[in-house]
Structure formats: structure tokens, C-alpha cells
Design brief:
The protein is an alpha+beta fold and about 725 residues long. Among the domains are: about 220 residues, Leucine-rich Repeat Variant (Alpha Horseshoe), CATH 1.25.10; about 120 residues, no CATH class; about 140 residues, Beta Barrel (Cyclophilin). The chain is about 50% helix and about 5% strand. It is built from 32 helices and nine strands. The chain has a nine-stranded antiparallel beta sheet, with helices on one face. The radius of gyration is 28 Å and the shape is globular. The two termini are about 30 Å apart.
Amino acid sequence: MRSPKLFALALALAACNPNERASSGASASAPASSASAAAPAKVDLAALREAEQLRAPGMIGEPDLASREPEVRIAAARALARIASPAARAGLLRALSDEDPAVVAWAAYGLGFRCLDEREATVSALVARALTLRDEDVAIAFGPLARAVGRCAATRSEATLVSWLDSAPERAREAALALGDLAGQTKKLREDTLVALLARAAGGVSTQALPEALYPLSRLENVPPSVTARVAEVARARLTEPGPYRLFAIRALGRAREAGIEPLDKAIVSGSPANLTLPEKVEAMRAAARLGVDGQVLLAKAVGKLGDDLAAAPSIDLALVLSAGLAGLKQPKGADGALEKLTKLAAPGAADVRLRRALSFVRCGAAKIVVKRAADPALLGCDLDAGYVGKQALAEVLGRSEIVGPALPMLKGLLGDKDVRAREAALEQLSSHPEIEGAAVILEEALRAKEPGVASTAAEQIKKNPNLAVDRKVAKKPKDKDKDKDKDKDKEPAVVAPLPPPDAGVVAALEALVERAEKERDLEMLGTAIDAMGALGWKDFIKRVEPHCKSSYPAAREHAAGALSVLIGKKTTCDPPERAEEIAPEVGQEAKPIRLVFETDAGALTLRLDPSLAPVTALRVADLARSGYYDGNVIHRVDPSFVVQFGAPFPDGFAGPPGRMPLRCETSPRPFGELTVGVALSGRDTGSSQLFVMRGRHPHLDGLYPLIGTAEGPWGSVIEGDVIQKVRVADD
């Protein structure tokens, strides 16, 4: 395992001096004079921070990468790694040869982040550097090197990583995680690789078991039948060992086919081992859902058993586990009686609003399975408090069949609901239901909604089904019927008529949405609007989209390139500018460790923000907290085995504070483990106010999201819909 103390030290050294002010220049440091060599002056790292934030690799020169001061070289490598553009590659390769392991770690991380154009050469350089590491540098640099080898997915990546599995545990662990990265890229691993991973996970007389070696299996959709029995055998052995990596064993059982049923049955129904955590129980339900018919039989059995337990002793945790099982139950044969009982599950007289909400998740989850029509009282009354849970369930059931007759007023009722979650759930039905009349009118109204999520959801429906936005006058015209088809059999095929133009109201609403997104600096809303413009193919949109092809934000350029490729009719690429035009206002401000105390429906919860990891982000979050932005915020996403997420202005998870400059990603090679805190993104450099707290170890997030601190307190008790009443800010 990577030494956390050593690695934390390396990252701390990478932070710029927060007291230094930003300055401009072609290079962040100048060659040292003889006088400064004798008595080194205080190093000014502010220009490197500016280069990082401006995404300007040209501001980082050889003097920075060759500086005698390690902190300068570390900061330069970090800046290049976070810029991660093709122009940063030469500097990263230069930094890869540095003698300081922290510099090497940042260089490897940056090279692995973007290696699409140079996979083979990049991996060759990474492997060569890994082979020359000193033993004392392994704890800091080997992990980023190995993970980059996996993420680049070059021809030699798999064989190299498998060979490293036979190394000392510290190297083998990183190689196993890197093979998981590789599996995530390629969606496959060789059978002999799987055998090697299972051998390492099992351990032996002279080799300790390595549970991390099961992680790559969880990144595969299918595992060859030849190894599934061995997968189940090894995973079952690792189930007896509590720790952050037991989740990998549970996920592996979901790839073990019929061999995974028996150990999952014990974990879910019999409660063996007895010390499984809430995230592990939820993962067990999800693993069973992957196991075909046998898994469905197990879930049906589990629903009956856990349903009886919940009725006897209602609890939020048990309700969340049961909800996960209901979500995976697609073939409820044998569970009809249990499901009917769950739709009528009563709340204890003393149940508070949180328990009632958790029980509503169960009641509505069961109702969605058993009801045949949306008007069924079991569905309409499944939410104990007539809240958003039941409305979302109703929208889902409405979408299963044609929305005509009595179903149409029900959908329109949801479209006019005050709760944004209900409105969005109803809008999501449009793309697959062309029989709904007046779709263009509905979309125009939604595109102009004040809630960013409603507008973005409407734009997403246009992307999925552009025919929804056809000119409403054309859409109303009856289709001509050819009564004499046989007469025209021998005629030349008719020329296919061009698609009708998009509705003028929708066009105007989309253009207004782009303008709004630009003004509010909402990159997610901008991306959905641009995607919708591209899907409609209306040439007049070109002038609205083209400016974003020159954006300094990668997410905006990506959406613009996709839309322009359709609108212009040929493949379009949008290269990054040499540098951005602006810098975050927080750059150069003093950053100190900060503690945020959240008073919530679930009790007092704490975040500790570490500015050595992400100084600009920490300052932004602290400023938002001081301003009261998070007060009254709804925790909009809780996945009990994954994350707790919050920070959107509405309870639907869209947007952030309007007008604030999006945050440049201050990502790092630091791993995302339980109770680490990250910044939610909708693309590169799109951070704003939304944060997430990890509920378990999920290596696929490592390096892709900014990790900004750690959490304390009962975050595992939080459920979706809980409210942050008040946030208090204190220096740590």
C-alpha cells in the first residue's frame, strides 16, 4: 500500500505559497545567479499557480523544470499535469526524468490523463521510469506510474502490469488497481490476466492475500465461465476480512455467474458475515441483480425476508438495502405476495419525516413492480407524504406504455408540478413517446423555465429525439395516405424529403438558453443546449455554437465540436487556446485549512478542506459557506455504497451559484477512499459548488475529480432529501 504520510507530504510540497501574489511572465522562475545560489531567495511560485489556472503550458519553461528548488519543479509538474493538453506533453516527459519522486508522480499522472494520441510512446516512457525507481521512492511515485500505464491502454500495458503483480505488495496493489483502469478502458482482460489476479487475491504460503486484485473484475461486464468458480472461491474467502477492499469481493461475486449465488445468499439473507456494512449490503444486492435468473430468484427471496424484517422493526438502513434489492428485481416471480405487502407497509406512529421518506422509497419501489397501470391506488398512494418520491414513480410507470387517454392529463399534471424533480421526471418521458401531442409547446415552456434543471432536461429530450421539436404547424398537418400503392411499384424511388424545420418557438428558446448559460456561466446547461442545437441540424445555429469552439473550457469545446460536426456536415475539432482569458479571483488569496460544520437532518456533519490539495477550490467552497449558500440546501443524491452529494441550488442536482467563474480542476493522484471529499463535475473544469463525500473505496474516480479534503461524522446516516439547515465555518 502507498504510504499515506509520504504521499501526503509530496502533495503538500506541490502547493504554491498562498501568500504570494500572481504575476505574469513567460516563465515562472529565472536562472539562479551566483548570489542566489549561495543564499537562496524565497521561491515565488505564484506564476506557476497562474499558469495552472490559465491552462497555459507556454508559461512553464525549462528554468522551472530544471530549478534547483524541488518545490518549483513539483509545482511546474503539477501545473502541466492539471493542464493536460497536448502542448503540456513535452514538459511532462521532461519532468518524468526528475530525481524527485513527487515530480515524477505528477508527471506520470499528467501523462496518463491524456495519452490518446501517443499511447505506445507514453507507456514506454512510463515503464522505463518505473524500472529505475529507487526503493525509497516507490511509495510516492510507483502508484501514479502504474495507474498511467493502465489508463493509457497501450499494447504492452496489460503484460507489464501483470508482471508487476509478482512484485512486493506495495507495487502489486498499484498494479492491480491499474489493471482495473485498463479494464475500464478496454472492457476486457485476457484470461491469463484474470488467473494471475485471482492468484494474487488468494495469496499463498509465502504471499499475502491481496484483496485489491479483485478490483479489475468489477470493471468487466463479463468474466469467462472458465474462471467463475475460482472467482467465487477467492471472493468468498475475502468476505471474512473487514476493510475498505471487501467491496471488491462483493462486486466480484456479481461476475461469478451461478457460483456467486450461494455466498451472496448468505450475505443478503442469512447475514453472514454478520459485520457487513450498509454499503456492502447494498453492493451485495446489486451483485445479485447481475446474476440472471438465479440472481432474480435470490432477490425475490431477499425481498420477502427483508420486507418482513422491516415491517417488524422499521429502520432507515434496512429500508435502503431493501430499496436496492427492489431496484434490481426485474422478474418478480415468487415475490408477488411480498411486494403487495411492501406497497402497504405502514410507518410507525412515532416515525419522523426521514423514516417516512425511507419507507416511501420501499413502498414506491415495490409499487412500480406490481402495478399494471398508472392509476393504481398502490402507486398513487405509495409516498407516505405525497412528495417527490411518488411523483417520480408515477412518471416512470406512465412511460411504460402509450401516454394517451387518461394517462395524458396525469403526465401534464406532473409537468406543472411545483417540485422540479417531478417536472423533470415527466419531461424525460417525451423522447420515447412521440404520441404526445404538443411536444414542441411543452419543450419551449420548459426551455424557458427558471430552474436550470428543467431547462437542461428539456434540451436533453431534444437531443434524444429531435422530431419532438418539429415546427408545431407542420406537426399538426395530417399525413397523406397513399391509397394506390400498388400503382407505383415500378416507379423510381421517391426522393426523401428533408426533415421539417424546427419549431420557431423552440429555436428562440434554445438561443435564449445559450445566452442565459453564458451569462450565468453554467457549463452544464450550455452543453445541453448546444447538443440540442446540433441534434436539430438547423444551420442558423452555427453562429451561436462557433464561439464556444474557441472556449478555454474543454467541456464547452467538446459539445461545440460535436454540434458543429452535424451542423456543418463534416468532422470538426476544437483545439484549446494557448491560454485562458481570465483567472479565478481566489488565486493569490491566503488559503488555510478550513473546517465546515453542517447542521443537518441527520445531525452534525463536518468537512475539513485541505488547501494544500486544492487551494482555489477550498477558498471558493469556504466563501460560499460563509455567504450562506449551503444553508437550506437539499442533499439531492445519496447512493449508500457510493456517494453523498449536495450543493445544487435546487433539489434536483443541477447547476450552482449563477455568475461564478467555473473552477479549474485541481485534480491529483490522491485516491478516493471512504469519507474523502470531492468536487462534482459535468466535464473537465466545470466545478462549482457541488461536493460529494465518499461512502466506500471507488478507484475509478482516482485522479478524475478534485479531491479537496476529508469528512467526519455520521455521513453514513444521511439519506436523499435530507436538508442542510446551517453551515458554520471555522479555521482548522
